[in-house]
Amino acid sequence: ISKSRTNGPLAGKKVLVTAGPTREHIDPVRFISNPSSGKMGTAMAEAALQMGADVTLIHGPVNIPLPEGIDTVEIESAEELFKQVKDHADADVVIMAAAVSDFRPASYNSQKTKKEDAEFSLGLTQTTDILGWLGRQDLPGQIRIGFAMETENLLENAKTKLNHKNADWIVANSLNGDQSGFESDKNTVHLLGTETEQTFSGTKQDVGREVLEKIFNSQ
Ligand code: CTP
Ligand code: CA
């Protein structure tokens, strides 16, 4: 059982973590999603708690135990996640580990789509870039940590995300590693700051703790 600490580098700080996938419904029985397990984001939430933070975890549908001692909010779609993030935007630290769907169906069929009626194409609309939105709010002193999941040009793409989203750090994940990725218990990440770059490898718990220690002991 985890207990929040009254000391530690994040004592008294509000940390908002997002984790897991989103689901974008086509109709009541079908949706677009991705295989995010929520493990990396949950490990970040746990690490922040251990460092003394008041943690809120906003998560999509996940099948893993959530740490005790934190506030949790469950969401389903990217739009619901965006609304919850706006409601919690006063956080000192935001960790956007959620695998947010970039697209949602342009229209929702409130009844199950029948084969006979289905069109052969699905119209899609882009969702809001939530981390990008936070970056444009310019909340004084807020530290924003994004993630980047890439299959190629890992560091280059992650650097672009760092800049475009006005984030302070990007945790870059390669999907090509042996023991990394959505469902794995382990991960290898490259932590990219505006001036530094460092690699961390291990269980998602270890990686979560080491990443936060690097960020909050270098302040
Ligand atoms: N993100 C977000 N809102 C979205 C999509 C992504 O806040 N609608 C966040 C993710 O939680 C992550 C970061 O942005 O912290 C990067 O997500 P990623 O999917 O790697 O990048 P995208 O900007 O969506 O670009 P692409 O998927 O095209 O690589
Ligand atoms: Ca994306």
Notes on the structure:
With 219 residues, the chain is α/β, with parallel strands linked by helices. The chain contains five helices and twelve strands. The protein has helices at 39-50, 78-87, 130-137, 154-164, 204-217; strands spanning 14-19, 24-27, 30-32, 54-59, 71-74, 93-96, 103-105, 124-126, 143-150, 169-174, 186-193, 197-203. Strands 5-4-1-6-9-10-11-12 form an eight-stranded mixed β-sheet, sandwiched between helices. The chain has a two-stranded antiparallel ribbon with strand order 2-3. The protein has a two-stranded antiparallel sheet with strand order 7-8. A hairpin with a 2-residue loop joins strand 2 and strand 3. The chain binds cytidine-5'-triphosphate (CTP) and calcium ion (CA). This is Coenzyme A biosynthesis bifunctional protein CoaBC. It comes from Fodinibius salinus. GO terms for molecular function: FMN binding; metal ion binding; phosphopantothenate--cysteine ligase activity; phosphopantothenoylcysteine decarboxylase activity.
